[in-house]
Design brief:
Strand content: 5-15%
Order of helices and strands: HEE
Organism: Harpegnathos saltator
Keywords: Ribonucleoprotein, Ribosomal protein
Low-confidence stretches: none
Number of helices: 1
Strand order of the largest sheet: 1-2
Helix content: 10-25%
Number of strands: 2
Protein name: 39S ribosomal protein L32, mitochondrial
Length: about 100
């Protein structure tokens, strides 16, 4: 049983119900990016923001970034720090994982 949504799924597999939610949110993000930036290559970082998130950083932070805003609140299961680039160098011995997921 999935600890996030309560649906049943096969052990050692992704929960199909949760995965569908992720796929739908990803599709919405892709559509918003395509609408905002088109299909041309983008040289700057692209950051997807939800309602109320732009005020959390200074104007200096947004200077060299392409910002795509989603007209809704961020889903509770979609943590903002998953979008942050890592500051760790990958190695063969350890995985690079985001922090503060709780």
């Amino acid at each position: 049983m999935c600890i996030n949504c309560g649906h049943h799924y096969e052990a050692n597999r992704l929960c199909g119900h949760c995965y569908e939610k992720v796929k739908l949110e990803t599709k919405e993000m892709q559509d918003a990016i395509q609408k905002e930036l088109g299909l041309s290559p983008v040289e700057e970082n692209v950051i997807v923001l939800y309602d109320g998130e732009k005020d959390q950083k200074t104007d200096e932070f947004w200077k060299n970034q392409k910002v795509v805003e989603m007209p809704k609140k961020r889903p509770s299961w979609f943590h903002q720090n998953l979008l942050e680039p890592t500051t760790q160098e990958p190695s063969n011995k350890t995985d690079v994982k985001p922090t503060n997921l709780a």
